[in-house]
Design a protein that fits this description.
single chain; 186 residues; mainly alpha; 7 helices
Length: 186
């Protein structure tokens, strides 16, 4: 009984090696056929042959997970976004992430919002009148107060005494005067 099981195991291993060898030969033959097809198409293969990296139409094959939406759906989403609906609200309605929605729209040929990236600052840096928005802490003194301080300093009062009188630091006083248009000593 032991001799028969040993013979069966030897036979099984021989069959497995034949199957593996057959697979290798099949892959080699497939590469040769692909190269021959390229030569007949007028495309001489140079270097290392590509590993099924291109689809039937010559475009690179998609790698990774399959698309969540079809091309027709992506085109429809693009029309909606170009019609005025935001990509964020569309993503929320479809229960997908915003990057997924953006990738789907780009696949359909959408190039994003037209106003951004053409020398126009982002929203946070603009005010309604077009002037740059101040960042950081709000000013301690109003414009009218700053102009009054400027008149006093140009009239002969020192910035240091004015700062001491108003209980602010000297840099705060200089910044306030500068904001009012003071150029410093001449």
């Amino acid at each position: 009984m032991g001799a028969i099981s040993n013979a069966l195991q030897d036979l099984e291993s021989a069959l497995r090696s034949l199957v593996d060898e057959n697979t290798v030969l099949k892959n080699q033959l497939q590469r040769i056929v692909e190269q021959a097809g390229q030569m007949f198409d007028g495309h001489a293969a140079r270097g290392r042959p590509a590993r099924a990296g291109r689809g039937r139409d010559g475009a690179p094959k998609k790698r990774g997970r399959a698309f969540k939406f079809t091309d027709d759906q992506a085109t429809d989403f693009r029309r909606q976004v170009e019609g005025g609906k935001s990509a964020a609200s569309l993503a929320k309605d479809l229960k997908v992430s915003l990057p997924t929605m953006y990738n789907t729209l780009k696949r359909a040929g959408w190039s994003g919002r037209g106003g951004r990236g053409r020398g126009r600052p982002p929203r946070a840096a603009r005010t309604r009148d077009g002037a740059p928005k101040k960042r950081g802490r709000s000013f301690k003194f109003t414009e009218d107060q700053a102009v009054e301080f400027k008149k006093q300093v140009e009239g002969g009062k020192s910035a240091a005494s004015l700062a001491k009188e108003l209980k602010v630091s000297l840099p705060t006083m200089y910044n306030t005067l500068k904001r009012a248009g003071w150029k410093g000593r001449k």
